[in-house]
Hints:
Number of strands: 10
CATH class of the largest domain: Alpha Beta
Low-confidence stretches: 1-5, 568-579
Shape: elongated
Distance between the termini: 37 Å
Number of helices: 20
Strand order of the largest sheet: 6-7-8-3-9-10
CATH architecture of the largest domain: 3-Layer(aba) Sandwich
Structural class: alpha/beta
Amino acid sequence: xxxxxxxxxxxxxxxxxxxxxxxxxxxxxxxxxxxxxxxxxxxxxxxxxxxxxxxxxxxxxxxxxxxxxxxxxxxxxxxxxxxxxxxxxxxxxxxxxxxxxxxxxxxxxxxxxxxxxxxxxxxxxxxxxxxxxxxxxxxxxxxxxxxxxxxxxxxxxxxxxxxxxxxxxxxxxxxxxxxxxxxxxxxxxxxxxxxxxxxxxxxxxxxxxxxxxxxxxxxxxxxxxxxxxxxxxxxxxxxxxxxxxxxxxxxxxxxxxxxxxxxxxxxxxxxxxxxxxxxxxxxxxxxxxxxxxxxxxxxxxxxxxxxxxxxxxxxxxxxxxxxxxxxxxxxxxxxxxxxxxxxxxxxxxxxxxxxxxxxxxxxxxxxxxxxxxxxxxxxxxxxxxxxxxxxxxxxxxxxxxxxxxxxxxxxxxxxxxxxxxxxxxxxxxxxxxxxxxxxxxxxxxxxxxxxxxxxxxxxxxxxxxxxxxxxxxxxxxxxxxxxxxxxxxxxxxxxxxxxxxxxxxxxxxxxxxxxxxxxxxxxxxxxxxxxxxxxxxxxxxxxxxxxxxxxxxxxxxxxxxxxxxxxxxxxxxxxxxxx
Length: 579
């Protein structure tokens, strides 16, 4: 059963986490309240114990404040767990929808979407780290200032001036580093995407001697990231250094002013001097934490923006009515697809394939054959026109569970880490559907081949199927396409990596699928593979050159495209002013 893709909402997820914020606020309040124990213990010792020279008072005061310290540690542990749990909950709530949307839109979304999990990790780390904890401590600054005011207004005034200066520096840090931090993030993602692509193509890089050029290009891209990142860090470092300077001056002045008040103002004791110095440090602590966490906050804000963009309505089509199982009737009308208006990949494609028929697609390189195959299985959304299966739009249907009725063999062999059986079962529960797995393998003609593997159907294929040969991978891909009860099978160059014997199995498969009334679309450069198809489509320069029965198309090709056969009517020219 297919799970419907549901659009998540950051606001909804955070709303569900409201109890975390409530408890975090409560524990933060208790912990900060208990941190006042240290200053008041010092003030009590200097103002009461030392003048009275009472050992009993010192003993009981020490016991009381040790108890307070123990409670503070326990509360701090629970508070830390709360914040860590908050980050984990956000991650767990969003990981599945992010995975689904990135898999679905990987071929047609901006590159930033491919780093969605990096963005989610950034959000998780910030919510579970020091940045958010400092936010819960900021409301205590007025309380600390009030306590200082009780000690003496001069002490509170000094703390207010210091706080204002530090807040100003925090604002300036945002202003000064915002642009360069965004640039650094963009350059980092570009460099990461480039090297990941190079790693996937390591065989090609090694064979063609491209290591030097690939390395130089990546180093150049990485240097750009380092340049912008270093610029941002230097600017942040200067502001942090200035904030430390202000904190040092404030600490010196607080001691000096407190000492002056002890010497010249009646009622101000040495205990007040020590307590006010500590409390003033605690008042500045959250601000310093915010300043030191500012860079992570900027990353959090950018990542949050990326996720909100990913979760926008345009990327999350509404759930639609799920049609009944298809029969396999394909209709393509006025199909247009382009990346940009200067680069048309397909323009004006029209054809129809009846249930159980086999269509062969041929054409020159870069004529749009693979793109058409992707459109036929709902991987890509047409720019204009329609691709329909039993009168239902394939792209919309693919959002609502079409996959179980589709068999697809892409041009590139793609296997997942796991067993042969799991790959044929489309990474589902292969043991629960063992009969279907074996049935798909037998239909594809690979059952005997699989049994000869070291562990049969339980053979581990390795990462990207590297433990198997190219021909073995291709045949398992064919079996996976036939798993379940597909009504439409699309094969893009299915004879890649196949020897003569395996090609014979492929020809037999095409005929067996026709007998089962399963509609087929086969893209191939080899006419021999298409000898049993019912219809053929010829593409060239992104356009439809000919569509008809196999004999009509072959005659048209044989006589130099001058045969008197009735071609498909030319569709009206599509305007290029599409919004």
